[in-house]
Amino acid sequence: MTDPRRDQDRRYWERHAWRYDLSLGPLGKPLPRMLELVAEAVKGRERILEVAAGTGLVTPVLARAGGEVVATDYAAAMVDRLRDKVAAAGLLNVDCRQADIYDLPFEGGTFDAVVAANVLHLVPDLEGALAALTKMLRPDGVLIAPTFCHDETRLSWLVSRVLAVTAFPGHRRFTIGSLRTAFETAGLKVDRCEVISGLLPIGYVEGFYQDRRSARP
Hints:
The chain is an alpha/beta fold. The protein has a single domain, classed as Vaccinia Virus protein VP39 (Rossmann fold, 3-Layer(aba) Sandwich), CATH 3.40.50. The chain is 37% helix and 23% strand. Strands 1, 2, 3, 4, 5, 6, 7 and 8 form an eight-stranded mixed sheet that branches. Helix 5 links the parallel strand 2 and strand 3. Helix 3 runs parallel beside helix 4. The longest helix is centred in the first third of the chain and has 13 residues. 43% of the residues are buried.
């Protein structure tokens, strides 16, 4: 059954795709460090899945650091802008597709890395989303999920409440601790965990299956 919250959220992103890049301006302080960490994590990995790619903030970094990139978003307007950005950058190793995080149209266990940047606070079903993402990983694969942590500081708490007034479709407010706990509850061994300061701090977390950690190259 379709979750009505998903349909409502999708409509929000379809409407706001044209100004998404501009909206990141005030929240942009943590982004350079986030992109640096993401590039390091995917370096040399042959097949990378990106979910909630949006207009392509992270996609070029993945394409330049790794091999084949499949970049997805569930909002058609976002994917249109993503394709334009990928084409303008001349990135020939990126396949842009419209796909839902809960219903990814790919064979499980076929990606060396899954990147979900700034989306986990937006999903109605966190457990289901993490299960869908980890299903895509090969035994030595890594899940990378830098996420805005709305409750990390007093200032971010306040900013988040202001955003809520604008109908921003957030479903939870993380701290770095609760984000790490979500990974561990999903059966992942957290390999790196860092708070990147900003108006809304980003919690950078990456992890591997706990029983497969020794298989990492």
